[in-house]
Amino acid sequence: MDPQNTDTEATMLLSQAKTLRLHTGNLVSRSRLKKKCPGSPSEELQDCIQATLTDWFSTIKPTSKDFTDTLECSIPQPTDAITPEEREELKVSVKLFLCEPVESSIRDAVEMACQTLAVSQLDSVIIAPPGPLEGDSLMLAHLQPAWEELESLVRSQKIAAIGTSDLDKDLMEQLYNWAQVKPSSNQVNLASCCVMPPDLTAFAKEFDIQLLTHNDPKELMSAATFQEAVKGGLQDLQDQDLNDWRLEWVLRYSIIVKSRGIIKAKGYLVSARKASP
Description:
Elements: H1 3-16, E1 19-23, H2 31-34, H3 41-57, E2 70-74, E3 90-98, H4 104-117, E4 122-128, H5 140-155, E5 159-165, H6 169-178, E6 185-189, H7 198-206, E7 210-214, H8 223-233, H9 239-242, E8 245-257, E9 262-274
Parallel strand pairs: 1-2, 3-4, 4-5, 5-6, 6-7
Antiparallel strand pairs: 1-9, 3-8, 8-9
């Protein structure tokens, strides 16, 4: 197969699409990415998007005429589907990064994760909502729409437990008092805080909220970096072909063996859309 023809065909497919859904597959076993040691979660995601697109586009036949609104891109290797026999032994944890304030994205992401991993319920989902506008501070009103959507998914048994990210004590208390389904965890970025704030620690202990640490940046991936990753995965794509593409959400999942505490699988699901003209 002529690589140039493959790239041309892939470019045509991308130009016709309105939505791009991407699954990186299991990074624990994916040898191509295991050889790399990204310095940050953002670099890891960029590498994953680029490598996944490269692998996926290489499988497209030049004679393909199947132009669709939604491109489902995943690596040709087996996925991380969990069998019913092993489900009880595994914990499926997710962190969902919302790049746009669209609550329907939460349900879309959770349903895609359940379908990809072949599970009916995610054990834990931590939400990282889009930040407030520049100059504004994060307030309860920013969190409420997303949290209500998460609560709906808990009631429908798609999610067992829900958590937050980077909330200080005051905002955590406001959310806890308002929420019908209480947060079970809160992630704290130790890059901006070398030790857990004592007031947050005390509040979490009193109300049985687990405090976790993370090193994710406030913006996991900018629009420009996403476009760069896509361009890197498809060599002949031009800048103007990508100007209208925006990330909707990024979901990072980990499948942990409960009895041993080791990560069996880890990967990303990514959704992007082309802005309407």
